[in-house]
From TrEMBL:
Protein name: Exodeoxyribonuclease III
Phylogenetic placement of the source organism: Bacteria, Pseudomonadati, Bacteroidota, Sphingobacteriia, Sphingobacteriales
Native source organism of the sequence: Pedobacter miscanthi
Gene3D superfamilies per the UniProt record, alphabetical: Endonuclease/exonuclease/phosphatase (3.60.10.10)
Family per record: Belongs to the DNA repair enzymes AP/ExoA family.
EC identifiers of the protein: 3.1.11.2
Gene Ontology MF term list: DNA binding; double-stranded DNA 3'-5' DNA exonuclease activity; endonuclease activity; metal ion binding
Residue span, Endonuclease/exonuclease/phosphatase domain: 4-248
InterPro entries tied to this protein: AP_endonuc_1 (IPR004808), AP_endonuclease_F1_BS (IPR020847), AP_endonuclease_F1_CS (IPR020848), Endo/exonu/phosph_ase_sf (IPR036691), Endo/exonuclease/phosphatase (IPR005135), ExoIII-like (IPR037493)
Ranges in coiled-coil conformation: none
C-alpha cells in the first residue's frame, strides 16, 4: 500500500502537475494540503477521471486538506480538531482506508514568531497531540501525514543557522514535535534514513531547488502497527522541478500488506 502526502499549493492552479504525478506514480492513497479552494471548487471530476475517490475540507483562498484513494473506499471519521470551537481553519481530515486510519494535516506556519500566529501554531499542535494520543490508544495502524511546518533537527534544513528565529525551527516547535514522537510515533523517513540529507520543500526564491537548499517539513508519523509494516519511503524530488509546480515535493511511504 503506497501512501503519499503532497502540499499542492493550490489544487486548481497546480491541477496539471497533480494529475501528471498521479498518473506517473499511482499511489494508493494521497493526502493533499493547501488546497486554497472553497468546498464547492474542489476539482472532484478531474480527480475522479484520474481514478481516485476523494474527500476534502476546503476553505476559500487558504488552507484546505483532502484524502484521495485509488479504487479504495474512504470512510471519513473526522474533520477538524476538538478543543477550539472558534477555529474555522480547514487543516485536518481523517479517514479509514483499506484498514489503515489516515490523518491528513496542515499544521499552521506560525510566522512571524513570536506573536499571535505562533501562539495559534502551538495551540493547534497541542490539540493535535491530544487527538493523536487517542488514536494511538486504539492499537490499530495509523498514519499521520502532511505538512507539519516543523523542521525537526538541524539535519532537516540547509544552513539551519538561518532558521533559528523562524517559527518552523524555534525550540518550542521542535519540542512539540519531539513530545508528539515520544507518545510512540515513528518518523518514517528517519526510521529508514536516520542520517541522510532529505528535503521536501524548496523555496521559489534564490534558485533554492537548483542548489538543493531545502527543508524537511512534510512528515509521516506511524503508529507501531503501521511502523511494523513500513517497507520503503522517499520523496518525488523531480516533481519540484516541473513547470508551474508546488514548492513542495510529494513524499511517500509503502506499507506491507497485512
Amino acid at each position: 500500500m503506497k501512501i503519499a502526502t503532497y502540499n499542492v499549493n493550490g489544487v486548481n492552479g497546480r491541477l496539471p502537475v497533480l494529475l501528471r504525478w498521479l498518473e506517473e506514480t499511482q499511489p494508493d492513497v494521497v493526502c493533499l494540503q493547501e488546497l486554497k479552494a472553497p468546498q464547492e471548487k474542489f476539482p472532484e471530476q478531474a480527480i475522479k477521471d484520474a481514478g481516485y475517490n476523494a474527500i476534502w475540507h476546503g476553505q476559500k483562498s487558504w488552507n484546505g486538506v483532502a484524502i484521495l484513494a485509488r479504487n479504495l473506499e474512504i470512510k471519513e471519521s473526522r474533520r477538524g480538531l476538538d478543543g477550539d470551537p472558534e477555529d474555522l481553519q480547514s487543516r485536518y481530515i481523517e479517514a479509514m482506508v483499506n484498514g489503515v486510519l489516515i490523518a491528513c494535516l496542515y499544521l499552521p506556519n506560525g510566522n512571524p514568531a513570536p506573536g499571535p500566529k505562533f501562539d495559534y501554531k502551538l495551540q493547534w499542535f497541542e490539540r493535535f497531540a491530544a487527538h493523536a494520543a487517542g488514536l494511538l490508544a486504539q492499537n490499530i495502524p495509523v498514519v499521520l501525514a502532511g505538512d507539519y511546518n516543523v523542521i525537526p533537527t538541524e539535519l532537516d534544513a540547509y544552513k539551519p543557522e538561518r532558521w533559528v528565529e523562524d517559527a518552523l525551527f524555534r525550540p518550542e516547535t521542535r519540542l512539540a514535535f519531539k513530545n508528539l514522537l515520544a507518545q510512540g510515533w515513528t518518523d518514517a523517513i528517519r526510521k529508514l534514513y536516520p542520517e541522510e540529507t532529505i528535503y521536501t520543500f524548496w523555496d521559489y526564491f534564490r534558485n533554492a531547488y537548483g542548489r538543493n537548499a531545502g527543508l524537511r517539513i512534510d512528515h509521516f508519523l506511524l503508529s507501531p502497527q503501521a511502523s511494523d509494516r513500513l517497507k520503503s519511503a522517499g520523496v518525488d524530488r523531480n516533481v519540484r522541478g516541473w513547470e508551474k509546480t508546488s514548492d513542495h515535493g510529494p513524499v511517500w511511504i509503502e506499507l506491507n500488506d497485512m
